[in-house]
Amino acid sequence: MEIRTAEFISSNTKVDKLPQPDKPEHAFIGRSNVGKSSLINMLTGNRKLAKTSQTPGKTQLINHFLINRAWYLVDLPGYGYARTSKKNRRTWEGFITDYIERRPNLQCVMVLIDSRLEPQAIDLEFINWLGSRRVPFVLVFTKADKQSKQKTIQHIRLFEREMLRTWESVPEVFVTSSVNQQGKAELLEFIGEVNGAIEKGAQ
User: Fold this and answer.
1) Residue spans per domain, the chain
2) Secondary structure of the chain as H, E, C letters
3) Taking the domain 6-198, which CATH number applies?
4) Along the chain (203 residues), what's the average pLDDT of each consecutive run of 10 residues?
5) What's the whole-model pTM score?
């Protein structure tokens, strides 16, 4: 799939004020400072679409972008460390939970994982929570350009091993880099296939 247009639609914290759930939706989320905004900008070919920052926790709202006038890419606040108050973090966690549990057109959650790190408890906890809610998700490992391919594979295998302690199988895995566009074609192809299956099923 090729992204031809990417249009900012809204920023909000309340599910009942989000765009009408009449198109497939794919949400991106990860630990703060995982490179989410850079990945979204790489996928859409627009460096200014999602706001990037050196300060973790920049995204504080549910941001909807309309892609090819056919589906929504949703930028969710990061979980974990951010230089903000505990009250703000609880607020974020509340509306993120509300969104994931109540959004009827949410097709898949792209869980972003920093490929440079060994398995982090906060990532595994979030994945287990998605599993308890039966929410479809895939793993998107970021910043692969920051280390050797061998090191990236090693960290992915460690993560998969940790998952298999409580999961029967590991979901689909993508390796990405916002610098050299690694994984762009594969991730967009996956989203295109999901959307295509929905269209086929509606016919």
Assistant:
1) 6-198
2) CCCCCEEEEEEECCHHHCCCCCCCEEEEEEECCCCHHHHHHHHHCCCCCCCCCCCCCCCCCEEEEEECCCEEEEECCCECCCCCCHHHHHHHHHHHHHHHHHCCCEEEEEEEEECCCCCCHHHHHHHHHHHHCCCCEEEEEECHHHCCHHHHHHHHHHHHHHHCCCCCCCCCEEECECCCCECHHHHHHHHHHHHHHHHHHHC
3) 3.40.50.300
4) 95 90 96 92 91 52 95 89 49 78 96 97 92 96 97 98 96 97 98 92 68
5) 0.90
